[in-house]
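During the second year of the project, the team shifted from modelling isolated chains to modelling whole assemblies. The rationale, set out in the original proposal, was that interfaces cannot be judged from single-chain predictions alone. As a representative example for this report, we include one of the complexes processed in the last quarter. Its constituent sequences, exactly as entered into the pipeline, are reproduced here:
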Amino acid sequence: MADDKTNAAEYWKANVRLIFGCLAVWAFVSYGCAILFRPLLAGIPVGGTDLGFWFAQQGSILTFIVLIFFYAWKMNKLDQKFGLGE
Amino acid sequence: MSQFAINLLFVGASFALYIGIAIWARAGSTKDFYVAGGGVHPITNGMATAADWMSAASFISMAGLLASGGYANSTFLMGWTGGYVILAMLLAPYLRKFGKFTVPDFIGDRFYSNTARLVAIVCLIVASVTYVIGQMTGAGVAFSRFLEVSNTWGIWLAALIVFLYAVFGGMKGITYTQVAQYIVLIIAYTIPAVFIAFQLTGNPIPMFGMFSTHTESGIPLLAKLDDVVSALGFRDYTADVDNKLNMVLFTLSLMVGTAGLPHVIIRFFTVPKVADARWSAGWALVFIALLYLTAPAVGSMARLNLATTVYPEMAGQVENYEEAAQNPILYEERPDWVRTWEETGLITFNDLNNDGRIQMYNDAADYSDRGWEGNELTVNNDILVLANPEIANLPGWVIGLIAAGGIAAALSTAAGLLLAISSAISHDLIKTMINPKITEKGEMLAARISMGGAILLATYLGLNPPGFAAQTVALAFGIAGASLFPALMMGIFSKRMNNSGAIAGMLAGLICTLLYIFTYLGWFFVPGTNMLANTPDNWILGISPLSFGAVGAMINFAVAFAVSRVTAAPPQEIQDLVESVRYPKGAGMAIDH
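Output from the structure prediction step:
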C-alpha cells in the first residue's frame, strides 16, 4: 500500500499548489487591483471612473466566480487522475 | 385594487408557498433534520445557500451602504463574496468529507477535546444569535411598512412562519423554502433595478448601465454623480480612500468571517459528494452575485435620483452647479413617495432657513453663503431599495413583490441561523456532551424543542433589541473570522495542530478581537463604557474595530502554531482523520499503512 500513500501525498501537494495559485489571483484582484493598486490603474478609464473602481464593485466578484469553477474543474481532474474521485 | 391589497396578495401567496413546501418536505430522521438527508443537488444547494446568506441587510441595506459610502463601501461587496472563494478551497469540501452534522462536531472530534467543542458551541451561538436579531427586526420593518401592522405583530408573524417550516421540516424544509425564497427575492430586487437603469441610461442591464452614459446629461453616470454630490459638499462618489490598510483588513475580516459562519458552512453538508461541495460553492456565488453585482447600480442610481429629485436643475446638462443648487424643490411640491415615507419617519424634513424649499447637502459643509442653515432632509439609507419602485413610478405589483422579497430575505437567513443554533444545542451539547445514549427519536424531539426555543429567544430579542443587536458585523463576523475560521482551517491543513494549540488559538483570537471591539464600542456594547472614543485617530495603526477580525485571525494562527509546537503531537488516529478528510474517496486508503 506504499504506492497509495505516496499517491495520496502527491494529490494533496497538487491540491495545495492549486489553492496557492487561485488565492494569489483572489488577492491580486481584490486587495491589489481594487484597493492597493487603484492609484496605479487610475489612468485606465472605465465608464466615467477608473479600472480600480470597476474591480472593486464588479470585476473582483466576477473573478471570484471564475476562480471557484476553475478550482472545482481542476480538482475533478485531479480526483480522476489519482483515482480518488467518488 | 389598493396597494395594501396587492401587498397582502403577494406576501400571502409567498407564505402559502413556503408552508406548502414545509408540509411536503417534513423531516423523518435526524439526518433529514440536520443536513436534509445529504442528498441536495449542488445547484439547488447553491440557490439555498444564496438565500441563506443574503439577509435583510443584503436585500435592504446593501444598496444604501453603497449609495452613502460610494467606493469606500466596496469592502462589503468584495468581503461578502470573496469569502466564498476561501470557503470553496479551504473548508467546504473537507468538512463535507468529514461527514458529520455540525461545525462543533468537527472541532470537537478533530481536536479530541470537549473544551474545544464547547468553545466552538459558544462562538457559534453568540455569532448566530446576534445575526438572527437583525433578521427578526428586518422582517418586522418590512411587515409594518407593507402590511400596515405594528412592528410587534410583524415580528410575531415572522416567527410563526419560520416556526411552521423550520420545526417540522428542519434542514430539509429550510432548504426547499430557501430555494423558493431566493427566487422571490432575486426577482423582486432586479425588476426595479432594470427599470431604473433603463430610465437613467437607456441600458436595461444594471451592471452595465452603471458604467454607461446618463441620458439626460450626456455624460457618464458615475461622472455625473461625482459632480452632483460634490456640488452638495459630499466626497466624490468614486473617490479613493486614504486608509488603505484599514480597507484591506476590513475586506479580509468580512471574507474570513463569511467563510467561518456556521450557518453557511452547514449548507455544504447537504450535498451528496465532496466534488459537489466545490461546485455548489461556485453556484452559490453565481446566485449571490446576481444581487451583489446589481446592488452597486441600485445604490449609485438611487443616490443620483434622490439628488435630482431635490435639485431638478442638476439633472440635465449643467453649466454652473452653484446656480443649480439655488433652486431645490418646494417642500409643498415634493413627490408622493417622499410623502409616503415621511409617514414612516424614515424621511424627515425640517425647514431650518424657513424658505419653504428642501436643502439637502452634507451637514459638515458650510454653505451659509448660499443662505443654507443646515441639511433639512434626512433620508434613512434603508429605504432606497424599498422605495425604488415608487421613485421609478413602477406599478403597484412591483411594490408588492418588493415586500415579499424583503420578507423572504429576512426569513431565509433567520431559518438557516436558527437551524445552526438548534443543532449546536441538540446535537453537540445534548447528544455528544450530555447524553450520548439518547435515541434517534429523542434527539429529533430535542432538535425540535431547541428550534422552538431558539425561535422564541430570537423573537424576544427582536422585540427588545439589546445593545449588541446593531453589531452584527463586529460580533458575528469578528467571532467567526477570528475564532472559528482559523481553527477549522488548521484542523484540515496542519496534521501537527493539536488540542492545546487549537484551544489556545481560538481563545486568543476571540479575546483579542472582543477586547479591541469593546475598547471602542463599550464593554458588551453598553454605551458610555468605551475606554477610547471610536474615532480613526484613536485606532491602533488606523485599524477600525470592525476590521480587527482579520488581525484576530492572525493572532489565532500564531498562538495556535506556537503552542502546538511545544506540546505533544496529536494521536495517530487523529492524524489519520486529517488524512481521510483530505481525500474525497473513502477513508480506507489513507488510513491503510
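Chain A touches chain B through 47 residues (CB under 8 Å). Strands of chain A lie at 45-46, 49-50.
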